[in-house]
Amino acid sequence: MANWTDNIVEKVNTAADAIKNIGDINEVDVATAPREVVWEDGKVKLYHFIREEKPKAKTPVIISYALVNRWAMMDLQPDRSFIRKLISEGIDVYVIDWGYPTRTDRYKSMEDYILGDLNHCVDYVRQAHGIDQVNLLGVCQGGTFSLIYSALNPDKIKNLITLVTPVEFADNDGLLFKWSREMDVDTMVESFGGLIPGDFLNFGFDLLKPMNKMRKYYGFNDVAKNKASLMNFLRMEKWVSDSPAQAGETYRKFIKDLYQQNKLAEGTFELGDQEVDLKKITMPVLTIYAKDDHIVPPDSTRPINDLIGSKDKELLEFPGGHIGVFVGSRSQKMLTPAVAKWLVDRDQ
Amino acid sequence: MNWMDLNKTGDFWKAWQDSAKAFSGQSQPATDPVKEWWSQQEKFWKEAMEKTTGILGNQPDLAKQWQDMQGNFMKQWTDMAKSSMSNPSTMGAGSSDMWKQFAQQTETWYADAFKNKLPEQLRPHFQTYMDMYKMFTSQWENIQGMIKNGLVEPKMIWQMINPVQYGDAIGKVMGFKPMKDLDEVTRQANRFFEQLRNAAMKMFPAAEEQVLEMNEAFNNWSNQQSDQFFPFLNGVQEVMKQNLEPYFHLSGDDNQTEVLRSLKEMQFSYLAYLHHSAKLQKMVLDAGATVLPAMMQEARDTFGKEEEMPTFDTFFKTYMDRLENAILETMQTDAYTTTQNEVLASGAKSKMIYDEMLENIFKDWPFMTKREADDLAKEAAQLRRRVRDLETRMANVPTSMNGTATKVSSKVEPKVAAIIASPEAVISRIGTAPKGVADDLKEIKGIGAKLEELLKEMGIATYKQVAKMDDAVYTMIDELIPAFKGRAKREKWAVQAKKLLKAKTLV
Q1: Do residues B330 and B457 both lie within one domain?
Q2: Do B33 and A107 make contact, defined as CB atoms within 8 angstroms?
Q3: What is the extent of the structural domain holding B446?
Q4: Inter-chain touch B370–A178, beta carbons under 8 Å
């Protein structure tokens, strides 16, 4: 009898809470840290995050996220936000929002992104703060962009941080690498009308762990019991489904020069008629990779520190996956404070 | 809150209430958790009523319906709860079927409500999860029974679980379209293409011969390959049909032949695409089909010896993991990569032919075609490059000559050579001076020896060039040589140069 009572009380209470929680949700909010647009050109925007206290480090950091998916991952939920934590640890933060490319951007090239947009953002921050050098933090594909940029403009970057950033594309058995190596990328770009749909990119990532999109629903009936956990679940879902398309020209070069020919690691990569020599990166570099990353495996990330010319360089392993780097509790407790400290220590 | 959800809520509360009322003959006293639970419930419903009034404020009808329903429910629920508390004997165990039914209803309601809050693109994933979960929960007793009794041969398993449904579920997880009966698909595909051919003949009587040729070729091909047809053909064909039909009416006479040619090519490349897709799917589904029998056989071997029968959750999660491993193993093979590339290549080819066909259909129409838009996008890309070149040059302007650049370029070495070596941007608007030809620019008021030297370093050496200067060029000169800012415009160099040029020609 007691069991039965407990059982029914629990079931009905769960249902009642769920009704309330599910009914209460009208909007799933992500990326809520207050910010302002300080620079924009077409679809690309530079945000400056508003802070109340003076930063501990006088050099601000610009975050360059991947073109795949959205930077909102860096500020997904208020209590586990990479950006908010970085701010509270005393860092002045800017983020580049690459926007949602459309068909008119089909010929937008890596040159346009790196020598154009990224360079403009760097120059804007240098000018706004009256400084010669800024800190750059690149994530995934945005990290690869940051490495390329820093090699071409070492005088503009004070410190460089790469997060789950692929640079070595050859010695890798990962499916994404295997498939990309053999893909007829010209045909793909042409048939998609010059714009690679976000769904297509996601489909590829999904195949790497096909059951992940099922596993996340285990125990979904317990999720809604608690409003916070329900909201966080829905925030992640919103992020997953928010995938911009990629400009065909950029995709073509990324696949051909990097995935297929591994040019950056081999020192033969060129951008806008300039050779990109990673040895020219001599500023302090912090390389962070995720141990269980199945999208950008450690094998493709760890070699960064061997390829650059910096003397002050660190390799930091994060225990988790590609996404856990940003939203896990360990990220909040360990990673972000470590990143902030690393920047503060090198602010002189 | 979704109105349908509320109805369902009402349903399951009613079921719960009925089941609670049915309990009798028990003599357990009401316990504190029950009282506490009740007070929570009362609070919740009160709050819910208040809240919804606001939310549904602009939809009075809906608000009233919802309130009536809740009010009604509240009343019944209160009566029932009060009576059960004052008379604990009406609360008791029993009526397990009612309880089960209630639990199932709750689960269904819950899943639907949850699904509606997910982003639209992800709802099919969740639905697939639920389908798979239900497929296994509904058979769980049978699965356990078969394991206990050692009835784990694949053919017995496939009698219990419908292999088509099983394959569908895996296909959906992978993002494939469901496979159905091959013959039916072939029949439907043939019917579709026949309609397409008839439509084409009707629209373009002149092209009858081609259509017949196409007809024959297609029949030959499909007869040979009919067993290879891939079942989602049907759905996609419908879409193609809807997409294609209107275009027959739009195309101008001149484009008919081209359109028909595209149509024919598309048929074959599309069928090739389906053929490759079917092959790919079969590889994955074959891998998936081994997992359940293997797991059940292993469970039979260990059950009763060293291990207990696994719980449903353990079984289901293990199944998912092993299914993934089996599929990944297949995906690691070179054969899979090859097939996947064939799927991508043939799909891409079909899409390109389709685009080409649209291009021809709309040739004479006042729309911007893909090709034209492509040209514009290319032009935009070239402009971006030119702007960047100019910016790079501006950034390299020496500190002493460019006040605006000093702030960001304090570390950049002056590079006069860079400007002299690449003055195209500056002087492209006014033309270039032939090699060795130079006028005496000092004749122009405002140009002294130093300025003349700087201008000549930039490639500006003749009256003809100066005569073509406009505001944009003046600005550029101002920025490059800030020391003489404003002078060129103020002294109207172009006007002066025109006069000097005229005088020179007259001489």
Answers
A1: no
A2: no
A3: 423-506
A4: no
- Summarised one tens digit per residue, pLDDT across range A16-70 is 666 667 767 778 999 999 999 999 999 999 999 999 899 999 999 999 999 999 9
Angstrom distance (rounded) from CA B314 to CA B8: 30
Q: Is 80 exceeded by the pLDDT of residue A178? A: yes
- Provide the ipTM: 0.91
B428 with B354, same domain?
no
Q: CA of B492, closest CA in chain A: separation in Å?
A: 34
pLDDT at position B355 over 60: yes
Is the same domain home to B308 and B439? no
**Distance from the B18 Cα atom to the nearest Cα atom in chain A, whole angstroms:** 14
Q: Examine the pLDDT at B176 and tell me if it is beyond 60.
A: yes
Give B172 or B7, the one with higher predicted confidence.
Answer: B172
Last residue of one domain, picked from the residues B317, B332, B361: B361
Count of CB atoms situated within 10 Å of the CB of B209: 8
Q: What does the pLDDT look like over A93-148, one tens digit per residue? A: 999 999 999 989 999 999 999 999 999 999 999 999 999 999 999 999 999 999 99
Instruction: Test B348 with A1 for CB contact under 8 angstroms.
Output: no
How many interchain CB pairs under 8 A, A with B? Answer: 184
Domain boundary among B361, B390, B405: B361
Selecting from B174, B340, B349 the residue whose C-beta is nearest the C-beta of A210 gives B174
Specify if B204 maps to a domain.
yes
**pLDDT tens-digit profile of A277-330?**
999 999 999 999 999 999 999 999 999 999 999 999 999 999 999 988 888 888
- Highest mean pLDDT, choosing among A2-6, A192-196, B358-362: A192-196
Query: How many angstroms separate the CA atoms of A335 and B40, rounded?
Result: 41
Is the domain of B308 the same as that of B188?
Answer: yes
Report yes or no: B352 at the A interface, CB cutoff 8 Å.
yes
Looking at the fold, whether B207 and B322 belong to one and the same domain comes out as yes
Are B331 and B192 part of one and the same domain? Answer: yes
Q: How far apart are CA B460 and CA B472, in angstroms?
A: 15
Helices and strands of chain A, counted as H and E runs: 18, 12
Domains of chain A: residue spans and CATH: 31-169+278-345 (3.40.50.1820)
B101 burial (CB, 10 Å; 0-12 / 13-18 / 19+) is: middle
A95 beta partners: A47, A63
Q: Which of B383, B385, B402 is nearest to B394 (CA)?
A: B402
Closest partner residue to A104 (CB to CB) among B114, B121, B377 is B377
> How far apart are the two ends of chain B, measured CA to CA in Å?
90
Q: Do A111 and B411 touch (CB under 8 A)?
A: no
What's the confidence (pLDDT) of residue A258?
97
Q: Residues A83, A110, A140, A308: which is the catalytic one?
A: A140
In a domain, B257, yes or no: yes
Q: Which residues of A touch B110 (CB under 8 A)?
A: 15, 18, 221, 224
List C-alpha distances in Å: B208 to A237, B197, B220, B254, B256. 53, 10, 18, 15, 11
In a domain, B290, yes or no: yes
Structurally, chain B folds into a number of domains equal to 2
Q: Which of B28, B119, B337 has the CB atom closest to A179's CB atom? A: B337
